[in-house]
Amino acid sequence: MQMKSLLRASALAMAMCAAASGAQASDSYPDRPLRLLVGYAPGGPVDTTARVFAKYLGDKLGQTVVVENRAGASGMIASDAAAKATPDGYLLSFAASPSLTISPLVQNSKLFDPRKDFTPIGMVVDYTNVLLIGPQIPAKSVSELIDYAKAHPDAVSFGSAGVGASNHLSAELLKLQADAPMLHVPYRGNSPAMMDVVSGKITFMFDITSTAIPFIKSGKARALAVTSRERNPELPDVPTMIEAGLKNYEVVGWYALMAPPKLPEPVRTRLANALADVSQDPAFRKAMVDGGYTVDEGDGKAVQARIEREYAMWADVIKSANIQTN
Questions:
Q1: What is the largest CA-CA distance in the chain?
Q2: Is-above-0.90 flag for pTM?
Q3: Residues 6 or more apart from 302 whose CB is under 8 A from it?
Q4: Which of 11, 152, 173, 191 has its CA 20 to 30 A from that of 101?
């Protein structure tokens, strides 16, 4: 009995020491620069947004936040590094939704499970896609486009940034819900696809609001609908896909702040509070709106819920569309 008492006392003392050590570490966190992984090349929309965000996050934390690009595998290289990093709060991921809800499915990846291999800190921004068609296409609405596709089974095609890209799957979801024949034409990026929409070589494509607006305003392309549940403030006269008649169509891309699994709660709280402060900063909000984004104040639970819902949705689309995975 005396030995058991000694063992219990020893275990209790060790636990108290560990708790004290953890508390001291969290009290001083962060005491050195942080690294923010971005899964895409410098200069693209994810990278440029991450760099703005990193500056504001660093200001709120009182430490420099250094953006580190680890491009590859449609954003999954960076996410995998974050999933396997030491959970101390000094290496984080600026994750774009496709790298967590689409790419692992399309590539049949076993690198990580986005539903359980991270500590979500919170949402950063949302972004809306726009369905664009060339000015020479007769359809003036989504319903007219669908009717045209059904009446001309070989005439309607859509472009994307490549097989499995988010705008590819957005169009596959339209095709599935409309039950209309539409041919996918993959490109090496959005720009060449957009050029062929403008010239009439393909019928339509989905593109993010920030890059679509110049083509809409110049008259080089027409916007038939946005993919968010609410109308986009930058395109107030463009209906949503739901308003256009597809009652279950909602696709909203997002960026979120993610950390490795098993992140200590005090560190998670510190990061979540700093993120909330960034989201409320008027200068940050203006920068995001100017970039075509909507600030999203969802917490870690909201991120987790979106990952699980969208992962399941895209799994169904990929299966129904018979998209070949690696």
A1: 89
A2: no
A3: 122, 123
A4: 191
Position 34, amino acid: L
